[in-house]
Amino acid sequence: MTKKLGVAIVGCGFMGRRHMLGFNALHKAGKLSGEIVALLDINAETANKLADETFALMGVKPKVYTNIDDLLQDDRVEALDIVTDPRTHHIIAIKAMEAGRHVLCEKPLALTMKTGRIMVAAAERTGMVLGTAENYRRGGANRVAKAVIDSGMLGKLHLMLEFWAGGDDKVIISKWRHMKDTGAIGLDMSIHYADIIEYYVGPVERVWGRGIIAEPTRVTADGSETITPTGEDALFASMQTKAGIDVQYTYLPSGLGKRYQQRSLHGTKGSMTVPPDRSDGDVIVYLGDRELKGGELIAELEALGAFININDVTKAVLGADGTGGKGAAWADVDAGYLAVEIADFIEAVQSNRAPEVDGMGGLRALAVVYAILESGHAKREVSVAEILDGRLHAYQDEIDTAIETFNG
Ligand SMILES: NC(=O)c1ccc[n+]([C@@H]2O[C@H](COP(=O)([O-])OP(=O)(O)OC[C@H]3O[C@@H](n4cnc5c(N)ncnc54)[C@H](O)[C@@H]3O)[C@@H](O)[C@H]2O)c1
Question: Which of 3, 31, 96, 311 could form a disulfide with 80 if both were Cys (CB 3.0 to 4.6 A apart)?
């Protein structure tokens, strides 16, 4: 049996705890080939609380650290699972890779292209595995949708629609998610959708779009504080992919009333709607008068010889169809998606292969999002290539300066 990979979760806040629950989902399913040997947070109380919860769930108490240099002295730590806020990702990841540790890093891979590029370069230089923790694509619905696209069932694809409109003026999760210098929610959420777009229809080449601050003030959930966001909460774009498919993109978490969400694909032979991520809705394919979903859709895919990427780990944590099943608790489904991405990373390290979403995958998603923001700033259509290679960066300059000041 392969030795369990010693992992340290770095950042034990809102998402760090969810990562621990992802490890626990694997543990419960008998599929955990790693072990949380350490936790690091600059806030000792936060880390200690998570260490206690880890012990209660998995029976092993990780060692708690509050300093990265001390953590990297610990020989049991073979890989870092970075779940801190984005402006710190590159600092921690590069230090870890240079100290011979593999890294799984939460999205966005980095806060800017400049900091993301040096992470990818560090992975190449050190030979360590760098994975991007991108969870949305891991669910059964996205796996089936991808199989439908690859099978050619929809004919020649013309259009993908990725649309979210509706929300309110409440602070979304945390205050740092509304500031340009720390990673505003428009970027924070759009990075997921950029990954889904490239997963479905391949590399995006050209982008025309912009970001706006739709809610000029936001109120904390308990109503005690009002903040003035400095970063865009909403992004709009028209994109073209390398394969010649058009993508219409909207993320607007503002506007009371009904929230509209749509992920759909439109081709010459049919169309497909995909339910919201982590929901228990069905992928539905419309072929003329035929409407295919559930077992009927799977049978059609199998008849076409299509590959559906629902592996054994996914089945163990999310059931046969990889969705968690009808009526499953959101927290269980969320932990299941995270379990799949964590298991993929551990297997990548243990078998010396690239993870499903590697550093470059995370960097490309970031480039698509920055293509929207740079396009709005430059008031012209931009190519993803000029964002990736650093020719266009004017929108990001202020953030890079703030990151340098913050990290000293
Ligand atoms: N994939 C998803 O669905 C999803 C959901 C939420 C958050 N995220 C991502 O997870 C990351 C963390 O988000 P969050 O909501 O948990 O933030 P958070 O603010 O709740 O937690 C961040 C934690 O990191 C700690 N921290 C900050 N700097 C540190 C450092 N240098 N060393 C060690 N610890 C440090 C903080 O003390 C805090 O406990 C972000 O990149 C975010 O985009 C992803």
Answer: 96
Residue 1 has pLDDT above 80, yes or no: no
Closest ligand 1 atom number to CA of residue 84: 24
**Confidence bin at 260 (pLDDT 50/70/90):** very high
Give the per-residue pLDDT at 2: 80
For the segment 379-395, the average pLDDT, to the nearest whole number, is: 98
Burial label for 248, CB within 10 Å (0-12, 13-18, 19+), is middle
Rg of the chain's alpha carbons, rounded to an integer? 21
Domains of the chain: 5-135+353-357 (3.40.50.720)
pLDDT in the model for residue 407: 86
**Which tens digit of pLDDT belongs to each residue from 12-51?**
999 999 999 999 999 999 999 999 999 999 999 999 999 9
Classify the C-alpha dihedral 84-49-192-128 as positive or negative: positive
Q: What is the mean pLDDT of the chain?
A: 97
Is the distance from the beta carbon of residue 16 to the nearest atom of ligand 1 less than 6 Å? yes
DSSP-H helix ranges across 127-276: 140-151, 185-201
Instruction: Give the chain's count of helices (H) and strands (E).
Output: 13, 17
Decide: 92 and 84 in contact? Cβ < 8 Å. yes
Residue among 283, 262, 287, 234 nearest 161 (CA) = 262
pLDDT band, residue 104 (cuts 50/70/90): very high
Determine the residue type at 165.
A
Residue nearest atom 25 of ligand 1, based on CA coordinates? 11
CA 106 from centroid of its chain's CA atoms: 7
CB under 8 A, 24+ apart: contacts of 233-236: 233/172, 233/178, 233/184, 233/185, 233/186, 234/186, 235/186, 235/187, 235/190, 235/209, 235/210, 235/211, 235/369, 235/372, 235/373, 236/209, 236/210, 236/211, 236/212, 236/372
Helix (H) or strand (E) holding 307, with range, is none
159's enclosing H/E stretch is strand 157-165
Task: Give 174 Cα–ligand 1 centroid separation in angstroms.
Answer: 10
Q: Ligand 1 centre from 88 Cα, in Å?
A: 9
Q: Which of 398, 389, 395, 391 is nearest to 377 (CA)?
A: 395
C-beta 202 within 6 A of ligand 1: no
